[in-house]
Write a structure and sequence with these properties.
single chain; alpha/beta; Rossmann fold; 2 domains; 7-stranded parallel sheet; 13 strands
Length: 365
């Protein structure tokens, strides 16, 4: 089977959550004996990606691939003809939208729908007008891709249920393909030398749904209540939170980390905190578990699925409940260990490949 893969997210941001999942899908498809993989992407003319992917003849700026006019030119002007010329039997779009704006001509199509927060949440944009425009354009693009896909693969039951709620006509084509999380089995952790011996970890600041301002406020109040509450390492950008939260005592910012550095932070942390009120999967949760680090997370989204049942939990908007949870975890830290790593293996390459084989096998002929 000749499979085309939308590689744009991995071209733009290979270390991002979606970019890493595109590379995971690439890895699993390449491991199949009966599958020939062809990548489709955009890139500047001198970009190395053009050596391994089919790209339009025109140059595309990496920082503009998400813009509607750039997407439209790729999906309407380039992709339909390129798929026909390459003899693609199955095309997989990997970033919530992006299926070609043309007839399928017998080709099967799959949409990987990570989440629908572009439509259901207040996302980060520079202006209200831009936010409104993107919501409208993204809504149409996602609806088109859901409509024209033969199957829609979601990383969690939470995301699948949200898709069914917004697009009832698609209920019969929704399937769950949990994300691949290899953990850090082949990575030597690079332990930070400038951090205190005890610290907690949190990952992600940009989108409001990450709930980081409330979490930082509650963490600060918990430190005032109990001396056992440790410092916090926050992977993200300080500009994503209000100025008064950027330089709190005991707060350490990190960004631009290598895989070894990230592994080191996970390994050294006493606990990972995931306060998001909306998550389509929760990649940092499984990554932390894979090295035996406990996780405390908010309830109400896909985090309910990926977190071990005995893990500390809190309602994402309950300020007092979160403070109580922070103090409780500080004074009675959850146990580390192999049980957590074993749970994380539910999302390893072997499990992912088995599920992918099942989903490819049930595609309509």
């Amino acid at each position: 089977m000749r499979v085309g893969l939308d590689y744009r997210p991995a071209t733009v941001a290979p270390a991002s959550g979606i970019g890493r999942q595109v590379r995971a899908l690439e890895q699993a498809l390449q491991a199949r004996a009966d599958t020939e993989l062809v990548r489709f992407s955009e890139a500047p003319l001198a970009h190395v990606q053009r050596q391994s992917a089919r790209c339009p003849k025109w140059a595309s700026p990496l920082d503009g691939l998400q813009r509607p006019q750039v997407r439209w030119r790729f999906e309407a002007k380039f992709l339909p003809g390129a798929l026909r010329e390459a003899g693609i039997e199955l095309y997989i779009s990997t970033a919530n939208m992006g299926l070609p704006l043309a007839r399928k001509h017998g080709r099967r199509q799959v949409l990987v729908l990570h989440d629908l927060f572009q439509l259901t949440e207040r996302n980060f944009h520079r202006s209200r007008l831009k936010a409104l425009a993107y919501r409208l354009i993204d809504g149409l693009s996602i609806a088109w891709s859901v409509l024209t896909a033969d199957r829609v693969w979601c990383p969690s039951q939470f995301s699948a249920d949200e898709a069914a709620r917004l697009f009832p006509f698609a209920r019969g084509k929704l399937r769950v393909l949990p994300n691949l999380v290899n953990g850090f089995a082949t990575v030597t952790p690079e332990m930070p030398s400038d951090l205190p011996p005890r610290y907690w970890l949190a990952v992600g600041t940009r989108e409001p749904r990450k709930n980081m301002p409330l979490f930082l406020q509650c963490w600060q109040q918990a430190r005032q209540r109990s001396a056992e509450v440790p410092d916090l390492v926050l992977v993200g950008q300080a500009d994503d939170v209000a100025p008064e939260l950027r330089k709190l005592a005991g707060l350490h910012w990190r960004s631009g980390l290598s895989e070894a550095q990230l592994c080191g932070l996970y390994t050294g942390a006493e606990c990972l905190w995931q306060p998001s009120y909306a998550e389509g999967f929760g990649l940092p949760v499984v990554e932390a578990l894979s090295v035996g680090t406990p996780v405390a997370a908010a309830t109400g989204s896909s985090l309910d699925e990926v977190l071990p049942p005995a893990s500390p939990r809190f309602a994402p908007h309950d300020r007092q409940g979160l403070i109580d949870c922070l103090v409780g975890v500080a004074e009675q830290p959850p146990a580390r260990g192999e049980e957590l790593a074993a749970w994380a293996r539910r999302y390893d390459f072997a499990a992912y490949s088995r599920r992918l084989d099942e989903l490819l096998g049930e595609l309509p002929r």
